[in-house]
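Blinded run. Sample ID left blank on purpose so nobody reads anything into the name before looking at the predicted structure. Input follows.
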Amino acid sequence: MALESIDQRDAKPSQSALLRRIDLTTLRLFIAVCEEKNLTRAAVREGIAASAVSKRLADFELAFGVTLFERLSKGMVLTPAGEALLHHARVMLLNIEKIAVELSEYSQGVRGHVRMLSNLSAIVQFLPEDLSDFFRAHESLRIDLQERPSGQVVRGIEEGAAEIGIASGEAETRSLEAFHYRYDNLVLVVRPDHPLAVHDRLQFADTLDFDHIGLHAASSIYLTSQYAAAQAGKSMRLRIHVPGFDAVCRMVQADMGIGLIPDRAFDVVGAGMGLRSIRLCDEWARRELKIVVRDARQLSSTSRLVLDHLQAAERKEGERSLGATLRR
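Blinded prediction complete.
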């Protein structure tokens, strides 16, 4: 029995030989089949014969001794092995893309490139000034900043889509490292002629008898407000979902309802529309934003510069706030 086991091990390809069987073209075709759920459509999309796609995937399955898809009448469905490969394939192709972009930028005189993901709150309220200061000190660097809901920021950092993310403090960060970034406060946005406009402060529960303008369903503000309404034993009278803070303010201005946005976002996009902001008294209305990375020790030198700058910007703002408080 022992000899038989040894023979079987010796018959398997070595790990290095298996790694040589992984090529980028096969991974790209595999992702296309996953997304199209149909081999023929994937072949058309990639401009290759369906038979060639089928052979590449069959050779890959044979080399690794796994089945990637279940072939069903309704299409091709991933097996657990296929799910695992899809995750790694996407990360690998993203990394290859990053290599190509960064090398291209070095040839053009750009000496560093950082990918960032951030929720809308940080992009509107804090990042414009913080990154403007950063670029004044590091003119030759470049940042690719993309807006995503907080949950997708965390997922993107986990999957290697970016090096640095900024998410709501309530987002589950799992295995990521998290650093405090900023605090903000949610305010209720109303027209001056709305019945609630006479108040300076309100409990969120006092707003639930009125129509609300909600941010998109994946936003942390919308999810938190839904939970708060349920805790108050009510449901939100949601009239419409919109994609951003400016859209919330425009809908409020058009008398569609009332909305929740961060206080600094109101200063940027809502104050000039003739609207009023009312501070919420609820504890959850004061929110933390946090920076997330996979491993701060393994960040590139450029990404480390960005992380250090964002943390320093938070400390400087804290010192300014303290100084303003002491002068009063």
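Unblinding after everyone has recorded impressions. The chain is about 50% helix and 20% strand.
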